[in-house]
Write a structure and sequence with these properties.
The protein has 15 helices and nine strands. With 350 residues, the protein is mainly alpha-helical. The strands form four sheets. The protein has a three-stranded antiparallel sheet. A hairpin with a 7-residue loop joins strand 8 and strand 9 (323-326). The longest helix is centred in the first third of the chain and has 35 residues, at 2-36.
């Protein structure tokens, strides 16, 4: 009888030991999954994910499984329930190569997202293009952007109007949240705009008897005239000279903008006749707005333009992508004749 009791006691103690071991193992596993690692990147790198509004937990896990080994989806779901995590907040999330459930759940539950790099160049010409680009890169409706860009009342808050609104968006790379709201985006761009227009740049603009807006408009024309960056300061000087003499700018890029066909390579007489405030062959002075989002360097080319007496320029007959600059019409006419003779000879040789 005593032997039987000892046997039962040993059995119970053994079972208790096994239960304790299993319980301890379970607790350690749960701790590991929760605090150390339940997600491990298969290539040892971090990966970024855009979580759209309405994305479920299961859909989020499905996305992660494309790059991560998940130790236990069941444990994740268990921890999600205990942390009252029902759905992820929209955003862009850069997930480390290894993390536990608590870190991931906390980030997704409270929207602790990572910024994205938002970049655009001077290739953006119109308000529609700018709004479309922002709508494609951010969780924004492009209609919300265009409605602000085209509102004189709204843009007046930034010292701009419908025609000059693109100047607020200086081409560069900015770190912003993918879910940024439209008004927050405009306020951010205003901050960047004010940071760019330092006291030194403002003094240089004032010395030219121009406002920052006018400098930006001229810069958009200057950089549209040549792909040869070394020529741009001279082109800026030429146009500043024409403005001082109250001469029409006669800038072909403004005609292209007025026509609205950015594929044009040759300007014909019928293009010059287009009635538009952007046609600087028909209207003296600067157009009412930029013809593209000018690069910072182009603005500086205008502000630091060299002193020259140039008033005319013509494509170089060497066809090397440069221009011949002239201080008077006779010099310009001679350069133009050389260019046209070269083009005629090329046509005949074909």
């Amino acid at each position: 009888m005593r032997i039987k009791k000892r046997y039962i006691l040993r059995t119970l103690l053994g079972l208790a030991g096994v239960a304790l071991f299993l319980g301890l193992a379970f607790t350690m596993e749960q701790y590991y999954r929760l605090h150390v690692s339940n997600f491990r990147s298969r290539d040892g790198k971090q990966h970024g994910y855009y979580i759209q509004p309405g994305t479920s937990i299961d859909e989020t896990l499905d996305m992660l499984e494309a790059h991560y080994d998940i130790g236990s989806r069941r444990d994740f779901e268990l921890h999600a329930r205990s942390m009252v995590f029902n759905y992820p907040e929209p955003g862009y999330y850069l997930i480390p190569e290894r993390l536990g459930n608590r870190e991931l759940i906390t980030r997704l539950k409270f929207g602790q997202q990572d910024p994205i790099s938002l970049t655009w160049t001077n290739a953006v010409r119109t308000r529609e293009q700018l709004a479309g680009m922002l709508g494609n890169k951010l969780l924004l409706d492009s209609a919300e952007i265009i409605s602000r860009l085209e509102s004189n009342l709204y843009m007046a808050k930034f010292g701009l109007n419908k025609e000059t609104s693109r100047l607020l968006f200086i081409p560069n790379t900015y770190n912003v949240y993918w879910t940024i709201k439209p008004d927050d985006l405009f306020n951010r761009m205003k901050y960047e705009y004010d940071q760019f227009w330092t006291e030194e740049r403002l003094r240089k603009a004032d010395k030219l008897n121009m406002t920052p807006i006018e400098v930006g408009i001229l810069a958009s024309i200057v950089e549209s005239e040549s792909n040869n960056k070394s020529e741009l300061p001279t082109i800026a000087s030429l146009y500043l000279n024409r403005l001082k003499k109250n001469m029409a700018l006669q800038a072909c890029p403004t005609v292209i903008y007025a026509v609205g066909d950015f594929s044009l390579r040759r300007i014909l007489y019928r293009h010059l006749a287009v009635e538009s405030p952007y046609n600087t062959y028909k209207h003296k002075g600067l157009p009412p707005g930029p013809i593209r989002c000018p690069l910072p360097r182009s603005i500086d080319f205008v502000l630091n333009a060299p002193k020259t007496n140039y008033l005319f320029m013509c494509a170089n007959p060497a066809l090397n992508g440069t221009h011949i600059f002239s201080a008077n019409f006779n010099g310009h006419a001679n350069a133009a004749a050389q260019y046209h003779n070269m083009m005629d000879s090329k046509k005949k040789s074909k």
